[in-house]
Amino acid sequence: MTFLQKIKNFVRSRSIHVAYVDVGSCNGCDIEVLACLSPRYDIEQYGIFVHNNPREADILLVIGAYTPGWEEKLRGLWEKIPPPKAAIAIGNCPISGCLFARPHTLVDPPVAKHIPIAAQVPGCPPRPTEILSAILSVAPTVFADYEVNGK
Amino acid sequence: MKRTVDVSIPVGPVHPCWKEPARVKCETRGEYVVSAEVELGYMKKGIERIMKGRPWQEVMFLAERVCGICSVIHNMVFIEALEHISGIEVPRRAALLRVIVNELDRMQSHILANFSYCYTIEHETLAMYLLDVREKVMDQLERITGARVTCAYIVPGGVRFDLRPEDAQALRLSLSAIEQEVTRYTDMFSGGPLIALRSKGIGILTKEAAREAYAVGPTARASGLGDIDRRLRHPTYQSLGFSPVVRTEGDNYARIMVRFQEIVQSIGLIRKCLDELPAGPIRGGGIPGAGEIAYSGEAPRGELTYFVKTDSAGRVLEISIQTPSIMNIEACCHYMLKGVSSMADVTSTFVSSDPCIACTER
Amino acid sequence: MKEALYEKDLTAMKFTILESRRHDRMVREIAADLGIPHLLLRRYLMENLDMLLLENLPARYEQGKKFQEGLPEVERALSSHLYTRAVPLINERVMDAIVAATKERVAAGIPLSEAVSAGKAMVRQVILR
Questions:
Q1: Which of A61, B38, B115, C108 is the most exposed place for a label (fewest CB within 10 A)?
Q2: What is the CATH number of the domain that holds B109?
Q3: d(CA B219, CA A110)
């Protein structure tokens, strides 16, 4: 690994831009992601910046159990994110559908069918600290040596 | 024909300021909004279809997941509807504990709504202050119920856990800290000249329009409709001497101020409950039976109605949920947004009505 | 026909909204009042109203029914407020014309029920057109 690559890896692990998208949840996970912004959890001290703009994001937090309205749109949103990128599923809904995956439902879980998911945080809803630690542990691993073995 | 519409600007579904996806299509003349149309369907989970034919023990948890922000009131209204159907009595201590938890939930929901508004008008300092206070409220909620969100605290005939004396002590301490901070932030909000520029006189909802769209909750109370508060018809709130907060301006500023005032009011209600809290059982017991009812309660966003029909085994045969956000967002998009003078005010007006798309679509 | 880039066909989702129990009951009530098949009325609603208004229809309908208790006899019998402001089925100007025509008939000595059913036929024509 070159010295330049080392610098890149270090910088990337300290500047993670996050966008979140709700594809049909109960809102509980949304507000736990929002709670991460609060001074208590202080997501920005780890170099994570929640901007909610897919075009400049590195990490996409997917919340919810994939409703019919998101067909084509979630895929398009995923393609708008410039590489290197990773998606993290927050909560039980994108993993299994949680209690929405029952007869007569409209949702179509898991989200992994539609876009590649790098990590999953179970919980209904997960605590803000769990979301935080998931982002922090996934991002450096996914983005490390992108120029060498990525693409 | 004279052309009145310049361009149709869609906002959303993914927007940096909104927590949830919705799509507002604004017909504009210059930047002046002539009319707005909303496209939903991004959150439709079909929760009423899932609930049909399931036992109440399962529907209880599904009802909470209609909305994650105001989950306690969904739990409370569904359970109280069952109690009214089968004539189950609730001990006084449990009834007061329900009010405590419900008011804590209302506080965190209102703080979150005001945070969203401050964030949207880009007053980030106040927004972060508010989010910090919210964590204090969440701590108390977690201390009493065991969970931050979706706590399933209320069960037929009572509540799940008792309030220990040390919890009550911690609650009182925390309440005075929260009250101090919220009062300070209310002054910051009402005294800020730049906030007033972005909020006063924008997105006006008149009393007549509020009545016509059947707006509820803080949105309607900011337009001068006080009698629509369902807490006035709840026996426990009646015994606590509740009276609603009403303002008459009907603009963004009034809606946010109503929420600030209600937070302080909720603190007062919780204190009163703690003072009056008698010793005794927290669960009276009872089994839900057959019947049909339309039961309403006051959610943080307004009147929430459950139309429930059960059979003798307690299975839910038919259910229909009318959430407050449906009426409020509709009032917002078809009345408030008309005549808003710039696109930046579209997002802030939309957020000021405290939209919860998960509620709206279920 | 040119297709808009981001527009989607919303018919299926609008149908899911109208399928719910309260919406269904409301659609059937209005259809019975006007004397048109409820499937046609449902299609008319889906074509003309946006999704949020569809979600809110039962609440508006109940509120409109309460409001029209205080209206004069002809307006109440024709549900003029209900079908223009609360559930926006037809244009207000069209409704005003229908109400005026009905009032003229009543003044000319035609019994109220007959005049109202003629007025409702006019409402029906506007919807089915």
A1: C108
A2: 1.10.645.10
A3: 37
B43/B63 Cα distance (integer angstroms): 16
Query: How far off is chain B from A4, nearest CA to CA, in Å?
Result: 34
Asked if A102 and B50 come within 8 Å (Cβ–Cβ), the reply is: yes
Is there a contact between B326 and C52 if contact means CB atoms under 8 Å apart? yes
Best residue in C8, C20, C21 for a mutation probing chain A (most A CBs within 10 Å): C8
pLDDT tens, B201-210? 888 888 888 8
Nearest CA-CA distance, residue A74 and chain C, Å: 13
Place of tokens 């807490």: B231
Annotated domain spans of chain C? 11-128
Bridge partners, B8 (sequence order): B27
What is the domain class of C11-128 according to CATH? mainly alpha
Structural domain boundaries enclosing B68: 7-361
The whole-angstrom separation of Cα B301 and Cα B354 is 7
Helices C38-48, C11-19: inter-axial angle, 10-degree rounding: 130
CA pair distance C128, C38, nearest whole angstrom:
12
SS3 A87: strand
Tens digit of pLDDT for each residue in C103-125?
A: 787 787 777 777 778 778 877 88
Interface confidence, given as ipTM, is: 0.85
Looking at domain A13-144, its CATH architecture is: 3-Layer(aba) Sandwich (3.40)
User: Per the CB < 8 Å rule, is A104 touching B148?
Assistant: no
Q: Tell me whether residue B114 is in a domain.
A: yes
**Domain definitions of chain A by residue range:** 13-144
Q: Tell me the two tokens of residue C71.
A: 């209206």
Q: Report the distance separating Cα B331 and Cα B292, nearest Å.
A: 30
- Buried residues in A60-92 as b, exposed as e (16+ CB within 10 A): bbbbbbbbbbbeebbeebbebbeebbbbbbbbb
How many domains would you assign to chain B?
Answer: 1
Rounded Cα gap, residues C124 and C118, in angstroms: 10
